Amino acid sequence: MTHVPPDAEQPAFLARMNQLAAEVDETGDVYAAGLRLWEVSGRAVDAGELAGNFCALWGALTDWIELKPDEADQAEAAMRRAAREWLGLDQTDSGAIQRYLDHWLHDICGYERP
Asked: What is the Cα–Cα distance from 77 to 3, expressed in whole angstroms?
């Protein structure tokens, strides 16, 4: 699930993900901003596997709030952290993207490693 081919960095997709990640970090309604990230990445078919990984990541983070409302504060803090870490990442470095996705998808969200 976390394999990122070297050509996965489509500029338009990355620009949109960056814009939405900034919203997650800056807004008062973290859940709604995270949900937008999930929705947009889910519709970004042309962005390939990177979009699928983003969709899985933000789907898991928004599900955390929906399925465990008593942990909403923890989930929102994780969403802000995921957004900040993404924005701080060298997005031209496919290895950095790979490490980010590996950490968030597997270590934090609990997806099984391939």
From this structure: 26
